Amino acid sequence: MSNKLEFYQSLTAQAHALCEGEPNRLAKLANLSALLNLAVPDINWVGFYFRESDSLVLGPFQGKPACMRLPLTGGVCAKAAISGAIQRVANVHEFAGHIACDGASNSEIVLPMRENGEIWGVLDIDSPTFDRFDEEDERGLGLLVASISSLL
């Protein structure tokens, strides 16, 4: 078992403990963004965007002020929301259509959030380090998102 796998298993358990017993989705996402910000190393922004017709609207987050509304016509978050696939970008400056909310961000991972099979939003995590997120991060965060989705 890798250290990252153990880290994400522990993080998932902490996320469950935070969400348990609270019915309000917004309150749970606020605490989850704080937990991820404190626990995941080498990131400069983490947060949720909610899908609203033809855009993604800013939800709970940790980091610098962010873009409040992202069109579904371009960008890493939009690609994840439309395709339903995790987007892991080693260098955001080379991603066609990237929407830069913070010029200090150099890599990004975006995970679709689902309820009953429908994508209702995304979890977006940025890092100032190029190629910060690897396959283990993608797998670990993917399992965390799948696990907590039932609690939201």
From TrEMBL:
Gene3D superfamilies: 3.30.450.40. Pfam families: GAF_2. GO terms for molecular function: L-methionine-(R)-S-oxide reductase activity. Residues 34-151 form the GAF domain. SUPFAM superfamilies: GAF domain-like (SSF55781). One of its GO terms (cellular component) is cytosol. InterPro entries: GAF, GAF-like_dom_sf, Phosphatase_reg/MetRdx. Belongs to the free Met sulfoxide reductase family. PANTHER family: FREE METHIONINE-R-SULFOXIDE REDUCTASE, GAF/PUTATIVE CYTOSKELETAL PROTEIN. This is Free methionine-(R)-sulfoxide reductase.
